[in-house]
């Protein structure tokens, strides 16, 4: 009996690739950038996606048809922006992209998590064609989400853990309106838990915490946010309070449920809880404000005898939190030890408690100064307009000399200039970041020595502070005598620079950016022409000036400008925005007949370059004669 044999390939050929494609269940496609046509690999294999074999005007359909999950549409915008606009940093000839997003399933309204690999080919700087494949990663993503859910919950009680609680409450508070919503933040702390844990053992203590978590879970609604934020400390955001009596009843009910006595032979110990409450919006609208005030109310409950709840009031703010027998020096040593043991946690707690980046920076400088026996810690902010560094924050030991303009002597200006030159010339990339380090300034060139002596600068370590690609300034540790800069000091300096660049100094940058944008808006609003700013990829307006808002009071963004302004389903013939290159500075003018068919309207467009944080959209400014 003869068996039909199949040829065994000796190399990769079309049959091998076809077999692998069928096995992997990948969808391959080709996207012609010159015609904007996307075609699936032929013959198109059955797949799980609601994608037509051939898609004309692909970029528009991908953006507006709902094929992409609405939350993932930004990924398409970033890709188009990167290939049409950001050619300076692109490898010559091709550009590779990998992304994970959700695509609409075939024959249903559900979305499927997918991984897309894309290779884009260029003719010079012009994208010509892209080849890619789509792989279904739904099972992998669901497993990952399950792991993330488990990571967000406390294993002992099943409630949210500390970080997840803070993040969810912060996100929820940002969605509220102080004029409409009424909510409350509750900090719940056990009374006498340490004695029970020490006397009855950790296993019994875990059982008590589990019982406490279970009572909290069932005492509040599913919609409330409930978490364990410490050993025996819990947090609840009690949402949508229509009647203050409901808050009173919930607090009293929980207190009654958890009031009990535990016995072990002849030993008997009481157990109860204390609660501190801060109300939204009366006592704050942010997580930090509400937590600070609820924490103060909690201590008031403790001071009044425990086993009760207290709602925050302003008269509590000036009172001591708890009775303490520590002297000021003891408390200072305690703080310094806490800072040394966990510098990052200390800084973040300081930020939450003060709700002030300015105070957090000032206090942290002193902590670093004392921890490493420094003579000066200085934070200089960089001004790109003048290319100058200016001291904004400073801590000094008795041997330190101030470099702040308001405190320094006039004759130190030349010395400071030489000091800055020495520091800036020493910057280089290290494993701890971009740093400038000198452990003995007496070994520097002779021209620097008078300045080093005048400023009492014997050794220094400075680290650049950046946010994205922007330089915000530098942070420096300085000694009056030669000193070895060890790894612990370099690591601390590097970590603090990261916190400064990404958290503590961003508000400064945001304020400056906000002021610049307000000035620009004011200028555009006072012009008589009709002016709007449009996203070049989606053609959706993101700003209208006052002339448009007054002439067309019902106008709103969210759709392409040709639809919003001119009731068209396709772009206006001769639209100058479509004629703009990626990042060019050209100024294109044309006449359009959209407003008045009998009288053409002079329309001008140019690329708009505005420094915007975390926003890479290519924008165009459009100016039209008033109608």
UniProtKB/TrEMBL annotation:
PANTHER family: DIGUANYLATE CYCLASE DGCT-RELATED, GGDEF DOMAIN-CONTAINING PROTEIN. The lineage of its organism: Bacteria, Bacillati, Bacillota, Negativicutes, Selenomonadales. Pfam families: GGDEF. SMART domains: GGDEF (SM00267). This is GGDEF domain-containing protein. Residues 181-314 form the GGDEF domain.
């Amino acid at each position: 009996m003869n068996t039909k044999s199949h040829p065994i390939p000796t190399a990769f050929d079309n049959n091998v690739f076809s077999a692998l494609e069928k096995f992997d269940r990948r969808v391959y496609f080709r996207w012609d950038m010159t015609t904007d046509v996307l075609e699936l690999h032929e013959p198109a294999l059955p797949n799980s996606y609601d994608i037509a074999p051939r898609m004309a005007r692909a970029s528009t359909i991908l953006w507006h048809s709902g094929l992409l999950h609405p939350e993932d549409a930004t990924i398409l915008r970033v890709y188009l922006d990167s290939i049409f606009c950001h050619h300076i940093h692109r490898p010559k000839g091709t550009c590779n992209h990998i992304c994970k997003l959700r695509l609409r399933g075939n024959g249903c309204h559900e979305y499927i998590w997918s991984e897309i690999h894309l290779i884009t080919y260029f003719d010079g700087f012009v994208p010509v064609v892209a080849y890619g494949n789509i792989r279904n990663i739904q099972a992998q993503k669901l497993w990952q989400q399950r792991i993330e859910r488990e990571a967000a919950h406390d294993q002992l009680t099943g409630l949210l853990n500390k970080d997840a609680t803070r993040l969810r409450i912060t996100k929820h508070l940002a969605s509220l309106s102080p004029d409409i919503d009424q909510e409350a933040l509750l900090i719940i702390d056990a009374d006498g838990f340490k004695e029970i844990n020490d006397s009855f053992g950790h296993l019994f203590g875990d059982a008590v915490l589990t019982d406490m978590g279970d009572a909290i879970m069932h005492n509040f609604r599913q919609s409330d946010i409930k978490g364990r934020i410490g050993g025996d400390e819990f947090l609840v955001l009690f949402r949508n309070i229509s009647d203050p009596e409901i808050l009173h009843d919930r607090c009293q009910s929980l207190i009654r449920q958890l009031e009990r006595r535990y016995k072990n032979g002849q030993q008997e110990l009481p157990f109860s809880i204390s609660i501190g409450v801060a109300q939204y919006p009366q006592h704050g609208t942010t997580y930090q404000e509400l937590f600070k005030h609820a924490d103060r109310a909690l201590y008031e409950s403790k001071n009044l005898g425990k086993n009760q709840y207290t709602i925050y009031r302003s008269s509590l703010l000036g009172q001591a939190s708890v009775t303490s027998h520590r002297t000021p020096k003891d408390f200072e040593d305690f703080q310094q030890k806490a800072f040394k043991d966990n510098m990052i946690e200390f800084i973040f707690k300081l930020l939450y408690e003060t709700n002030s980046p300015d105070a957090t920076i000032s206090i942290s400088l002193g902590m670093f100064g004392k921890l490493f026996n420094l003579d000066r810690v200085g934070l200089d902010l960089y001004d790109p307009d003048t290319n100058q560094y200016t001291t904004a924050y400073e801590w000094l030991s008795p041997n330190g000399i101030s470099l702040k303009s308001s405190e320094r002597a006039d004759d130190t200006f030349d010395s400071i200039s030489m000091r800055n030159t020495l520091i800036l010339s020493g910057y280089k990339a290290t494993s701890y970041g971009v740093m400038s380090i000198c452990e003995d300034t007496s070994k520097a060139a002779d021209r620097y020595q008078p300045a080093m002596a005048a400023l009492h600068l014997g050794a220094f370590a400075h680290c650049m502070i950046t946010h994205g690609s922007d330089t915000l300034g530098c942070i420096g540790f300085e000694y009056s005598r030669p000193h070895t800069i060890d790894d612990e000091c370099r690591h601390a300096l590097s970590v603090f620079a990261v916190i400064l660049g990404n958290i503590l100094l961003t508000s400064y940058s945001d304020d400056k950016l906000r002021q610049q944008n307000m000035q620009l808006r004011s200028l555009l609003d006072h012009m008589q022409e009709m002016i709007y700013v449009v996203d070049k990829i989606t053609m959706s307006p993101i700003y209208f000036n006052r002339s448009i808002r007054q002439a067309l009071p019902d106008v709103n963004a969210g759709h392409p400008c040709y639809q919003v302004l001119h009731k068209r389903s396709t772009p206006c013939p001769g639209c100058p925005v479509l004629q703009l290159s990626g990042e060019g500075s050209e100024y294109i003018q044309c006449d359009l007949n959209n407003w008045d068919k009998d009288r053409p309207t002079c329309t001008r467009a140019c690329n708009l370059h505005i420094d915007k944080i975390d926003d890479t959209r290519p924008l165009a400014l459009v100016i039209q004669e008033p109608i």
